[in-house]
Write a structure and sequence with these properties.
8 strands, eight-stranded antiparallel sheet, alpha+beta
Length: 232
């Protein structure tokens, strides 16, 4: 297999960073990384794009039922007498954060992988846009679409300097025909978009600058500052 091919290296790196490359395939790629600069560069590029998304996931406190199941797994059935150190409140308080982190990791690992991997699109500045250089230089986004095509998270890699009275609007662009609006998005934090069949008849995603409140015509009216094509 020719790992110097950019599209192959990029696809493997994306699945590796997302965690959807597993088992023997993941171990093989890790073995190959030191000998293949193109693979290393692709992995670094995807890590730079995707790792910041982790900061947007809100923490979730475990419920009492989760604590009960966890203690049962660690220390046996509830009817069995607990040792004195298991009942100490300071122990629970001191280890609460570590246990919650381990619990979240355990739940994540126990969930079977989705039937389809998420689709990740890196959106780059549209150099042909009639927009200011400061805005274009920061018009970089990562769009992640769930495997079932029902949810999209759009994250700017840099905060965009928008003028007052202006907004950003996300568009799904078909191979033929007019783009359809997916709503307003933020220029300084992640935005979640929930729509049915986000990827149907979609060849690319685009972000345009519109009046505050969005396009008044149902089509892009301002400069399209960022575009990302779906790979087929």
């Amino acid at each position: 297999m020719d790992y110097s091919r950019p599209r192959l290296a990029d696809r493997l790196a994306a699945n590796y960073v997302l965690g959807t490359l597993r088992g023997a395939a993941r171990r093989r790629l890790e073995t190959l990384l030191p000998a293949h600069p193109s693979l290393r560069q692709a992995v670094n590029r995807w890590q730079d794009a995707l790792v910041p998304l982790a900061s947007t996931v809100p923490p979730v406190a475990p419920t009492a039922a989760v604590w009960t199941r966890l203690e049962t797994r660690l220390f046996g059935a509830a009817e069995a007498p607990l040792s004195w150190w298991q009942r100490l409140l300071p122990w629970r308080a001191a280890t609460g954060v570590a246990t919650a982190a381990a619990l979240v990791m355990g739940v994540a690992l126990s969930i079977p992988p989705p039937a389809q991997s998420p689709v990740v699109i890196v959106m780059s500045p549209n150099e042909a846009a009639a927009a200011g250089p400061a805005l274009l230089s920061k018009a970089k986004f990562v769009a992640s679409v769930s495997g079932d095509g029902r949810a999209l998270v759009l994250k700017p890699l840099d905060a965009l300097p928008l003028d007052a009275g202006r907004a950003l609007e996300l568009w799904a662009v078909p191979a033929q025909g007019a783009p359809r609006s997916l709503g307003l998005v933020a220029g300084d934090h992640s935005t979640q978009v929930l729509r049915a069949k986000l990827l149907k008849d979609t060849a690319a995603f685009a972000v345009s600058v519109e009046p505050d409140g969005g396009s008044p015509t149902g089509a892009p009216t301002g400069p399209i500052i960022s575009v990302g094509k779906l790979e087929t």
